[in-house]
Amino acid sequence: MLSQEYIIIVAGGSGKRIKSNIPKQFIEVNGKSLIVYTIEKFFNYNPDIGMCVVVHQDHLQHLNDLLQKYFPDKKISTTLGGETRFNSVKKGLELVEPDNTIVGIHDAARPMVSVETIQRCFETAAQKGNAIPVINVTESLRIIENNTNKSVNRNNYKVIQTPQCFNASAIKKAFEQDYSSLFTDDASVLEKTGEKIFLVDGNVENIKITHETDLILAQHLLK
C-alpha cells in the first residue's frame, strides 16, 4: 500500500537578518509572497498532499488571507508555532496521522526547492524511512580549534537543505525527546534515537532566504 504524503511548512521565522518589518516568508517577490511560491511547489509535486503551515500568532490572519487568495480549493491546516523551531515542528506533527504516512518538514523561506528534490525526498523516505536533501560544499573550509585553524577536506561535508522527510511514526516519537541545542535540524532529532539518516541530492537553488542578496537571486529565479 502506498504511503500517504504530508508536508509541514515552518513559517515562524522573523525578518531580522534581512532588515524587514515582516517575516521573510511574507516578503513579496515579483508580486507574490515567498511562502506562496513555497506552497505551490509542493502542490506541483503532489496536488493531493496533506499540508500544515506553522505560523506565529501575529501573522496568522495574513497567512489565512494568502491561503484564501491563492489556494481556495485546497485543504491547508494552520497551527501556531512555539518559542523555538523545535517546538513549532512538534506542534505541526501533532496534526499528522502516524499510520502509513511520510511527512516532510520544510522551511517556508525556501521557495526555490525543485519538484525533483521534493520527489527524491519523499520516495527515498518511503523506501528507507527518512531522507534529507544535501548539496556539495564548493568553498574551501577550515576548522578552528584551540585558537588555531587548519584546512579540512570539503568532500567530507555536505550542505543540508529541506524538505526533510520521515516515517511519521518515527519522527513523532523522536520529537517526544526534550529539546537539545544539538538539534540543528529535524534529522538530528531523529538521529538522536539511533536511526541512520539517508541523504539524497538537493538542488543548488534551494537556498534559505536569509539576507538581502538572497532576495535579488530569488527575483530572477522565481520569474
Proportion of residues in β-strands: 25-35%
The total domain count is 1
Which sequence of SSEs, written as H and E, runs from N to C? EEEHEHEHEHEEEEEHHEH
Q: Please name the CATH architecture.
A: Alpha-Beta Complex
User: Uncertain regions: pLDDT < 50 for 5+ in a row?
Assistant: none
Total helical segments: 7
Q: Using only CA atoms, what is the Rg? A: 17 Å
**What overall geometry do the principal axes of the alpha carbons give?**
globular
What is the CATH homology-level superfamily? Answer: Spore Coat Polysaccharide Biosynthesis Protein SpsA, Chain A
Mean pLDDT: 94
- Level-1 CATH class name: Alpha Beta
Task: Describe the protein in words.
The protein is an alpha/beta fold. Helix content is 31%, strand content 26%. The chain has one domain (4-221): Spore Coat Polysaccharide Biosynthesis Protein SpsA, Chain A (Alpha-Beta Complex). The protein has helices at residues 34-45, 60-70, 85-93, 115-128, 168-174, 186-191, 212-221; strands at 4-11, 28-29, 32-33, 50-55, 76-80, 101-107, 130-136, 141-145, 148-152, 158-160, 164-167, 199-201. α1 (34-45) packs across α4. The longest helix is centred in the middle third of the chain and has 14 residues, at 115-128. The N and C termini lie far apart (38 Å).
Summarize the structure.
The chain has seven helices and twelve strands.
Question: In terms of topology, how is this protein built?
Answer:
Elements: E1 4-11, E2 28-29, E3 32-33, H1 34-45, E4 50-55, H2 60-70, E5 76-80, H3 85-93, E6 101-107, H4 115-128, E7 130-136, E8 141-145, E9 148-152, E10 158-160, E11 164-167, H5 168-174, H6 186-191, E12 199-201, H7 212-221
Parallel strand pairs: 1-4, 1-6, 4-5, 7-12
Antiparallel strand pairs: 2-3, 6-11, 7-10, 7-11, 8-9
